Every structure is written in C-alpha cells, then in structure tokens.
# Entry
Amino acid sequence: MTVHPAASTRPAASTKIAFALQRLTALAPLDDEDRALLRGAAEASHKVPARREILAQGAPIRQASILLEGWAYRARMLPDGRRQILHFLLPGDLVGMCAHRNPTALTTITALTDVILCPAPQARAGQAGEGLAEAYATSRAREEELLLRQITRLGRLSAYERIIDWILETGERIALAGSSGETVFPLPVTQETIADMLGLTSVHVNRMLQSMRRDGLLRIQSGMVTILDRDRCVRLADYSIAGAAARR
Amino acid sequence: MTVHPAASTRPAASTKIAFALQRLTALAPLDDEDRALLRGAAEASHKVPARREILAQGAPIRQASILLEGWAYRARMLPDGRRQILHFLLPGDLVGMCAHRNPTALTTITALTDVILCPAPQARAGQAGEGLAEAYATSRAREEELLLRQITRLGRLSAYERIIDWILETGERIALAGSSGETVFPLPVTQETIADMLGLTSVHVNRMLQSMRRDGLLRIQSGMVTILDRDRCVRLADYSIAGAAARR
DNA sequence: CGCGTTCTTGACTGCTTTCAAAGATGGTGG
DNA sequence: CCACCATCTTTGAAAGCAGTCAAGAACGCG
# Structure
C-alpha cells in the first residue's frame, strides 16, 4: 500500500521530492542551491515498510532525515501497553533534527505507511543551503506548535471537538505539501490509531465519527476524509486553539 | 509573596542567580566566562509581579530571558474561557528562546508568583559563552521532553495518575535548581491552576488530593508539597512515562 | 475583624470506557 | 473466482470516572 500511488509510478528519483520540496518551500524561500542539495540527498533515499520503527526511543541520532513520502507517527508507550501518539509526520517533515550534543531520540518514530526517507542536507546560516537552514528552523517551530496544540486538544477539548480539530489540522498540513486538497484527503489510519492520537478509545472514536457523519460535518471511509461542512467544523473545534489570538 | 524568601533577604544582585546558575550548570558545564556573562546579565534583571503577563501570544520576541526567581506558566486560552497550561517555568528556565527569524511568541507566559528575569546572554558555539550555548540547547531539549510528557499525561493517564506524575516531575525539576529537596518543596499554585495544567476541574483535583492524603501518598498544604511515599508514587504514576525506556 | 479567594462537600448528570460479540473489509492462496 | 483469515468497524448494555452546580467552611490578606 502506497500513500501516493501517483508518485510511485513515476520513474525518476527527483520526482519523489516534489511534496517535501513544496512543503519546505512553504516554510522558507529556497534558492537553486537549496534545491540542488535536496535533489542530491534524495539520491540516497531509502524505503521503510509500514509498521517498522524509523527511530527508536533512546537510540542515538546519527543523521537527521527528511520524510519524502508516506506517513509516520511519533509515539510513547506506557509499560502496561497504553500508547499515546504525539504527532504525525507527513512528507516534508524532519526526523531526528536535534540541536544539542549527545542527541538521543526522546521518542519512537514508526512508519504508518510505506515511507521514503532521505538524509537531511547539512545547512547552516551563512553557508550553502541557507534557505534550507531557515526551513529547518521554521519546521521545528511548527512542530512545537503542533505539540502545544496537541496539549490543548487533549486537556480541554471534548472527544467530538478533538477529532474535528485534529482532522482540520491534518488537512491543512497535507494541503501544505500539495499532495491533495484540504477538503478531501487521504488519512491512512485506523480508528484505533486516531484514538491513540486523541487520548480516546477506538470504540468512542467510532461513535463520534458516526455522529459527525449524521451531523453532516465530515465523513471518513476507506482511508479518505471528506469534509462536508468546513465552516461548521471550524466553528465547533477550531474553537480557536490556534486561531483565537490570530483573529482578534 | 516570594517563592524563595531566603534569597530575597540577601542584598547583592549576584546571589539572585544562584538557582538559575545551578540549574544551567546541571544542563552543561559552565566555565568562568559563562558565569561572568550570567552575572553581568543579572545586573540588568527586572521584576514582574505575580499574575502579570511576561510574554503575550503573538507578540514579537525581542530578547530571550532567563527566569532567575519565581514561577511562571505558559498557557493557551480558548475563546470560551477554557484554559490549558502547557508547562511551568522554574528558576533557570528560558523564556522566549527561539531559533528562527521573525520570532513570534506561540503562547502567553504569565508570572505565577513575583518573578525576576534577566536577559539571556548571547552565546554561540565557538565563541564566548560556549557552555551557555550548550546549556540553552539542552534546556530547549528538556522543554520539549516536558511537552511530550505532558501530552502523554493528558492523553493516557487517569486524573489520579496525572497528579502524581506531575508532582514527581515538578519535584525533580525544583531539586535540579537546588532551591529545595524533591520530597518537600513549595508549590505556589491553587487547585484550579493544577486543574488547568492537568486537564481537570478544580473540584476533581480537590477530591484526588484528598484521596492521596488518605492513601498516604502525598500531602499538599499551604503551598507546600510533602511526598510521603515516593516509591509508591513512582510505581503508580511514573508509570514510566519518561522512565520506561530508561529502565530497560 | 471583614472580605475575597480558595478549599470542601454533596447530589446529580453525562461523557467515555469497558466488555463482548457480531458484521464488514481487504488481501491471499487455492 | 471464491473461500478464508486477519484486521478493522460497528453495536449494545452496563459501569465508572470526571464534570456540573451550588453552598458552606476555611484561609489569607489588608
């Protein structure tokens, strides 16, 4: 199962970076040098099959990577088996980008679908790849924003609100990479995965999704989300976790 | 109300950095130069009274600061009044440390007690203050770890577990700055603040705290925590959110 | 000593989980 | 092309954890 079958039918390695490139370009302007660096790195890309760990908690981080294709998730396990997904990684996201020495992975990252990774080109301000360096920095800030939003979601939203808020957020993130629109997009996750992301049980996720379909808000079937009434969704959930300050 | 009355009775500005210095030293070795930079910065320290905003969401970040004394919290508000505290800031923590351009505060930071801040000395690898630079980087990593742990706490722990886990975490953080032990330490927060941190209501926090006292686990009275049975607390909650991987 | 905030308590509601089992779905091999 | 299997989704009933509302007690501050 490939998430982006359209891409996998194209032969050249260079096409594989399209989504990641668009995503990174959205974070910071990239010049030809930046793009060349990326294309070079993409030559060394490798594949990780679904369900396999990309990075194990506690393992030393050798080389930061860029996710070119597919979905992954970052999660923490409790000893009794409970699992909490911290956030999802989409094409263009960075894996194991870490500023300080002795970098050790704080959490496990696992491939959700088949995934293609490439090494993240070295880039520092003032040197080659300046645009990339800025994109990396912005990417980290976005990731922090995701974490903050996730905390607010889990701490203060109801199950219904959590799901809607998360779906909207995910749609926006996917649209940013250009692989699909934000009204209809792929969501290669089971209801149990959604539950582990949103601090719920799969049974309850199932019931909420049914309500949403009944309420004409959105529909999830065979790995595809269709947002039916975006305005109402935003009103219900975007409940402004992020938007509140921006709007006033 | 001052959190650390012992320190406030001492006259010299230099003594005020004691806790922050110990905290930063725990993160990375600091040489004389690093210490001198800090002492210099501490001369320019300023005070923020309890309840006042230190940094407003959306505001540009001009100058990163170090929290020298007192407690603060980082929070996000929903338009309907719900509030989620993301994490607390203790002496030695950094405020507004941000790597990318056009830095804008993602969240509001508010003084919980009277607080003393000083500008964070500029420091980069390879220049003066190399130790500080590393301490900053480690500090950011610790902050990320706090956020990840908070997500797991909110998503997968029961109210009872959340409180214990958070108390243990906070005790460890305070002990790191050396201002008190991790069995008995100040906790200058109301039960409502705890509720906003842990995604609960103040009523329920109250009931859980009573259970814990009855169960002989810990006691909170007049702003002081006393952990009565650390082992059992760890077993119940540390439930290894962080510790799981470390222990095996 | 008086007042506002914080803490406690009780009764009741309801969201979410739990447990269990019956459908659906999709991929695989015969 | 169909039977079969594993996984995922759906459903129901019952229990429980946490929230809500409201009011009284305690605390701390001026």
The two ends of chain B are 43 Å apart (CA to CA). Residues 1-14, 243-248 of chain B have pLDDT under 50 and may be disordered. Chain B touches chain A at residues 57-58, 76-80, 82-84, 86, 98-101, 106-107, 134, 137-138, 140-141, 144-145, 147-148, 150-152, 154-156, 198-199, 239-241, 244-246 (CB under 8 Å).
